[in-house]
Amino acid sequence: MTPVTYLLAGLFMIGFLVLVHELGHFVAAKVLRIGVPVFSIGMGPRIFGWTSGGTDYRISALPVGGYVQLAGADPYGEQDTEQFVDPEEDFMRRPVWQRLIVMAAGPLVNLALPFVLFTFLLVLGRPDWASRVGTVLPGTPAEQAGLVAGDLLTEVDGEPVQIWHDVEQALLARVGTPGDVALVVERDGATLPLTLPASALATDPDGEVDLRSLGAQAFFLSTRVGVEASASPAGRAGLRTGDRILAVDGEDVETWSALLAALDAGPRHALRVERPPALDAPDDAEAEELELVLDRSEGAYVAAHAGAVTPWGFAPVTLFASGVEDDAPAARAGVQAGDRFLAVDGKPVLTFHHFIDLVARTNQGAEGPRPLDLTVVRDGALVEMEMTPEVRVVSGEAYSRPIIGVSSFGGMGVAVDQVRKYYSLPAAVPRAFSESMAVVRGTAAVLGNIFTGRADPRDNVGGPVAIFVAAGTVAEQGFFQYAAVIGMISVSLGLINLLPVPIFDGGQILFYLVEWVRGRPLSLELRERFQMVGVVAIVILMLLVTVNDIQRWVVN
Q1: I need a labelling partner for 285 at 20 to 30 A (CA). Which of 172, 212, 308, 313 fits?
Q2: Which residues partner with 127 through β-bridges?
Q3: Which are the contacts of 232, defined by CB distance < 8 A and separation ≥ 6?
Q4: Lowest mean pLDDT, pick from 74-83, 227-236, 379-388
Q5: What is the pLDDT of residues 383-415, one digit of tens each?
Q6: pLDDT of 555 higher than 50
Q7: DSSP single-letter state for residue 208
Q8: Predicted pLDDT of residue 393
Q9: Does residue 64 lie in a domain region?
Q10: CATH code assigned at 183
Q11: Are 94 and 46 part of one and the same domain?
């Protein structure tokens, strides 16, 4: 995507969000019959516009921000003594409750925007993952129920399912109930009935159905491999953990099941392999393609454990550690990059994200996390260790959780088919509300973590540059992704504007609440001092986040 497209996508996103925010103030003022001399998109000098109903609707020179000028008030919400205002339209002469409504309307509309957008997108038919099973993990209830990779779920407990979200909700409703869950799948053109014990269903730490323990995933495993032992056929062939197998005997393979099927044809194969750059390689380093020969004529690899591994001596890379954070619990316990996670407290690790869930379950609330027993495989040998996780807020997450300081490999999955499901309005409203509330709760939690010092603002706060980059990136992905990001950023804008900072709406709301309690406003001198502190703080913050955005953009 060209820089011009990023610019246009960012300008539209910012302009739309500002328009929605200011419309909240504008509509509330008009309903209360308060005068609105100016409605501006952008700041600075007026470029063009029109006047209607006593309001100058204008586009201003600086394409960031906007404002609604209320009759009798200056841009900071203070009394404007330099112009005559009709007392009936004077904002500053209105009761405090009316001024509170007008000030709160802008942020509240921003908070409500995701609900409107998500409802609209669902009715239009938002693309979503199909209800096709991408991966079935060995030894799990999903495998025991007879599910195989590629199955298309069409019914769960008698209810038709079309997308993966339908499957999750239907299974979540059966958690903790007796009996079996009836499944209907399409496989190779045939319809098959299957049953899954409801006792196999549980919830994860987020309160959703635990599909990782169930063993069914909504994506196909990629062909990135983790090599268990240098003496295995994979190790002797020169494969390394993190390599992606692109082709077997000249035939391209994209998924784990396709890879295994191709290797089942015989004991010797020619591989085309993609090897990513080393972690310490220069930023402009490119992946390397290799031609290798995989041969197990001398015998299959026999693992020293009961975990899933192929006779070739490799397993899905999702079971391996890509890196270990310095001075983290894992490093202190002796975990090394390239180790395979085998078990936590004796429970088999199914995927890296399942491993994260198992670590998260060590949390004992106020007492903190308890020690865990970790078993890893290192060059074919079992290594046992004990460690106690640390509770931290992880970048990009809204809550604290126990972590041990390890990272996973990227490119572990291949997406399944997407389908477009069309919702009726009555069906769209509750799902849109649920998704909107999840965004609001998550954003509020992230902001809370920043202000309490539990999260690094540099990793969680973005300015105009970050918005432009995000807008351009999702614009490439299509209208639905672009609109969804608008809704999520709108929540951040709404919550930030409710903060009790004088230059924000929340600062004015605070002043009016104090006036309501005291029966009179704070002195003009005190309010002006607060305003000046707020302006300086916002200018400094904008400079800092802009510099941080540019640094992240240049590095990435």
Answers
A1: 313
A2: 420
A3: 301, 312, 313, 314, 380
A4: 74-83
A5: 999 998 988 766 555 566 788 889 999 888 888
A6: no
A7: S
A8: 67
A9: yes
A10: 2.30.42.10
A11: yes
The pLDDT tens digits for 254-266 are 999 899 999 998 9
Cα–Cα distance measured from residue 170 to residue 333, given in angstroms and rounded to the nearest whole number:
41
Whether residue 277 lies inside any domain: the answer is: no
In the predicted model, what is the mean pLDDT of residues 37-47? 86
Q: Are residues 36 and 60 in the same domain?
A: yes
Q: Are residues 325 and 402 in the same domain?
A: yes
Domain assignment present for 554: no
What pTM value is reported for the model?
0.73
Kindly state whether residues 9 and 90 are assigned to the same domain: yes
Which amino acids are annotated catalytic? 22
In total, how many domains does the chain have?
3
Say what the pLDDT of residue 541 is: 58
**Token digits of residue 365:** 């609330």
Q: Are residues 154 and 102 in the same domain?
A: no
pLDDT tens, 272-301?
Answer: 999 988 766 676 778 899 999 999 988 889
The answer to whether 78 touches 91, Cβ cutoff 8 Å, is: no
Same structural domain, 360 and 470: no
Domain containing 485 equals 3-124+464-517
Q: Would you give the DSSP letter of residue 333?
A: H
Checking 251-255 for CB contacts under 8 A at 24+ apart, the result is 253/223, 254/220, 254/222, 254/223, 254/414, 255/134, 255/149, 255/220, 255/221, 255/222, 255/223, 255/414
Residue 343 domain-assigned (yes or no) = yes
**Structural contact between residues 431 and 518, judged by C-beta atoms closer than 8 angstroms:** no
Tell whether the torsion through CA atoms of 9, 12, 18 and 24 is positive or negative. Answer: negative
Helices 464-477 & 524-555, crossing angle to 10 degrees?
50
Which of 217, 241, 273 is the endpoint of a domain? 217
- pLDDT exceeds 90 at position 529: no
Domain boundary among 217, 252, 276: 217
Are the C-beta atoms of residues 31 and 53 closer than 8 Å to each other?
Answer: no
- 282-286, 508-512, 552-556: which has the minimum mean pLDDT? 552-556
Angle (deg, nearest 10), helices 464-477 and 479-497: 160
